[in-house]
Amino acid sequence: MIFLHFVVAAGSGEIQFLKVTMIILLSLNYLKSSRVKSVIFSKHQICHMTVLITRLCRKQETFYGSCMDDKQIEALGPKPMLDFIREIGSWSICQDGSWNKTSWDIYKVLQQLQSTYYPAPPFFSVEVTNDHLNSTKHLIKVDQSGLSLQREIYFKHPEMVEIYEEYMSKVATLLGTKCNTTAKMREIMDFEKQLAKFTTTAEDKAEGIYRRMKLHSLIQLVPQFPWLDHMHAIFKEANVTETDVVLATSPSYLRKMATLLNNTSKELLSNYVVWQMIRDKVSLLSSSFRKARANFNERISGVKDTDPRWRTCTGITNDNMGVPIGSLYIKSFFEQSAITKTQSMVDEIKKTFKKRVKEHEWIDDKTTKYVFAKADALGSKIGYAKYVVRPKDLTSRFSSLMVNSNTFFKNNVEVDKWLDTDSSPNSGRRWTRRSGLCFHRQ
């Protein structure tokens, strides 16, 4: 049992959000430690935490509040999704007048999506990853993507594909389309099945399908796609050249993907691209959309969605903006001695490794020297990134993220944009996209 004792020492707004923050921490098991029997906040501690919340967690409060504002979400209905669809170039479904076939260009659309949003899954993904041969450098990673279901489902479970098509049609209808949405959505799934045919299986991918090559080689292997222009659009300030090294998924997949893309009508491509961008955002809309998603999940998994709204909103808030809340936990409950203990364990492992290397007579002195140098160069990341407990750094990192109390759906889209442009070296995703990019060049 955990008791939270609040001493009212600030305005009702700060105390209310402090309670919400504690609920989030509790629901995430941050405070469910057998050692914590009572958490008592003094006037000084509450004031101090209020300052932290004001500086670091106000956007989290706004985000959480927008999720809990069911009245506003219901009033907006499908509008946030329709606005987003127009923002990403629209689709041809039912010819609602927002899609222009003449000006719509698949290459420009993909450039816009992958340079603006994270994730942007149609066809393939572009990431930045560490170069395992030189940890001070980075590589562009091109990976296969673009399926709504697991690859094997398209071929082994047609009944599940049919259920998914019904769900897609329901979503399209809720968005206001009045044509035969079932036929349109079946076209998208038939297209995805073609893509799935040459998508690498999970087993083969686990064994390793990536090839290290210069961008020039990728251009030669897959000349059907404008790779250099695409990279320039995504990494605007990185001065990407054909000599940059990339880590590319199966060239066979990329070739067939590019050929399929070139041989498919604009109408179908636009519908596929938009569905890929909206499929994970359906549950962010009003209750009719959430019910459609819940019914689909229940038919597929047999599990009913019984979570109360506050728990759902807690999870979404933590997934998107959990770092500042984590900073409160670190400051109040994290035992710093755990870092020292873990570092000692790592050092002992290195020491034991070196000892065992020296015991092998077949390893000569020159090789041993290089092995030791490699072991000494190994870094360890323990506990948490330093910026998490530096209010100025944390505030700076979130400064460009804009959230509004009345636009829950748009707030999630803004997070997608922010993740795409975050330049923090600790963001763990695509921090090198805009600045600080140091690619491996040969």
Automatic annotation (TrEMBL):
GO terms, molecular function: metalloendopeptidase activity
Pfam families for this protein: Peptidase_M13_N
An annotated GO cellular component: plasma membrane
Gene Ontology terms: biological process: protein processing
Record-linked CDD domains: M13 (cd08662)
Gene3D superfamilies assigned to the protein according to its UniProt record, in alphabetical order: Neutral endopeptidase , domain2 (1.10.1380.10)
Location of the Peptidase M13 N-terminal domain: 58-384
UniProt-listed SUPFAM superfamilies: Metalloproteases ('zincins'), catalytic domain
PANTHER family reported in the protein's UniProt record: GH14155P-RELATED, ZINC METALLOPROTEASE FAMILY M13 NEPRILYSIN-RELATED
Name of this protein: Peptidase M13 N-terminal domain-containing protein
